[in-house]
Amino acid sequence: MAKEKVLVIEDDEDILTLLEHHLGREGYTVETAEDGEKGLDLARERPSHVIVLDLMLPGMDGYQVLKALRADERTASTPVVILTARGEEADIVTGLELGADDYVTKPFSPRVLMARIRAVLRRKSRQATVADKDEPIEVFDIRIDPRRHEVRVRSRPVELTATEFQLLRFLASHPGWVYTRQQIVDAVKGTDYPVTDRAVDVQMVGLRRKLGKAGEYIETVRGVGYRFREE
Q1: How, if at all, do strands 50-54 and 5-9 pair?
Q2: If one looks up domain 5-128 in CATH, what number appears?
């Protein structure tokens, strides 16, 4: 049975050939584009399940492509994995802020990239199967019940503030996904809520302390933000 379709937007011919080989061996259908404009057109005209996007493209760069993808309802929810030689923290944060789902820096291991693509597709599938956002979330030994506003760790009730509850619920709903502090604030409080990065860190410290040993499931991604460990 055919697997999902992957669109690779990359201007380096050697890397394109390498990715076509490895993705094809994994069973994916592969489509490629060597510049941002063509890649964006393909993404809109022939939808893919996931897009691998280089940042340093001729003409329309990867950031511009990502903005356009997220602004178009046809591609707004398509997972995007950034593949880039620009591995500075600021570049990674910018990509995530613009809506990328993951990133891999060059030089890269094809096996690692394949694993990242599989992980992104699993997350997308998991989200699609959640029919009711208020359904309880069970991950590791934590149970989060939005309807009861209740959290239990190994059946032990944990008392959380409203903000701590929303932080935990948000991260646990997207295990493995890395979020910047601003993305976390936007998801929990709304885009107009004035708060500093330091305030997010303080909330995380309190949340981890209350969760006890289970607080280790919330991981700090240095220079970027936070993620909930993937099972």
Answers
A1: parallel
A2: 3.40.50.2300
